[in-house]
Write a sequence for this structure.
């Protein structure tokens, strides 16, 4: 052995043995960062420093049922607008869906919060792979290039599984209206946490749902008599034979159902609930 090489090799051998020992004991291996936990999630949360990354964070919150991060996405004057053809939004025609409604509904969906509405066992959301970000037309007079206000229309695919094995499928378009932090109306809850007029952070101030259109979801899934393929039909009670299939509903329906306001279990809504 070359005596001049062994002192150099000893530290590396010691580090290698340390890594092997940690792996064998189940501890975090510093030489394999892919297995390092990130706040309990396998994928770190995107940083909402632009419009596209804000939507990636929104998507991430759904996929990881991240209720804490979800509370940081919306302005104080946020509004969700139901699809005009969606009967699920009837209760909100006179009283708008606010940030409070959004957070209550999401908390019930992600982590639970009421005896008769269990949280989802799994959620899968997919938005467009890339976004066409344009200036918000509502502010074109004083922000024509969209420095502070932008909008994004994206396709949405959302699957929600419930603990009993049933679930919902939602698909269609949605339009997000986004605002930069130094022009946003920041909720007091976030101000108390240190959030301020930050130009490097974006928020959602308005969301338009289009998933109740006939070509974009909103009907009940049933099985075709000849092919056995799932197709969309009118929102009526689920046949017993297909009770375990995902039921296709609007995004507005899911929000109203998990919001849990009186009337959310009306006959029209109850026909689209998974079998218990």
């Amino acid at each position: 052995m070359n005596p001049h090489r062994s002192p150099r090799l000893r530290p590396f051998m010691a580090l290698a043995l340390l890594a092997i020992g940690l792996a064998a004991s189940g501890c975090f291996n510093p030489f394999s960062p892919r297995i390092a936990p990130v706040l309990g999630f396998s994928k770190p949360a995107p940083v909402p420093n632009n419009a596209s990354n804000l939507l990636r964070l929104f998507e991430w919150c759904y996929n990881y049922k991240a209720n804490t991060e979800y509370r940081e996405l919306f302005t104080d004057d946020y509004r969700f607008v139901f699809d005009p053809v969606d009967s699920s939004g009837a209760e909100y025609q006179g009283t708008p869906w606010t940030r409070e409604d959004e957070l209550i509904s999401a908390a019930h969906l992600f982590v639970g919060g009421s005896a008769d509405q269990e949280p989802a066992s799994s959620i899968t959301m997919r938005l467009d792979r890339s976004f066409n970000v344009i200036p918000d037309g509502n502010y074109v007079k004083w922000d024509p290039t969209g420095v502070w206000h932008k909008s994004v229309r994206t396709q949405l695919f959302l699957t929600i599984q419930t603990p009993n094995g049933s679930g919902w499928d939602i698909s269609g378009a949605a339009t997000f209206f986004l605002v930069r932090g130094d022009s946003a109306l920041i909720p007091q809850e976030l101000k108390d946490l240190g959030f301020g007029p930050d130009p490097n952070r974006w928020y959602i101030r308005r969301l338009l749902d289009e998933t109740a259109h006939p070509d974009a979801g909103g009907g009940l899934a049933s099985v075709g008599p000849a092919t056995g393929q799932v197709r969309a039909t009118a929102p009526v009670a689920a046949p017993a034979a297909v009770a375990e299939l995902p039921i296709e509903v609007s995004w507005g329906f899911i929000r109203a159902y998990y919001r849990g306001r009186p009337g959310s279990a009306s006959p029209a809504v109850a026909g689209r609930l998974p079998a218990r």
Observations:
- The CA atoms of residues 257 and 264 lie 6 Å apart.
- Strands lie at 74-81, 122-126, 133-135, 149-161, 167-180, 202-209, 220-223, 230-233, 247-248.
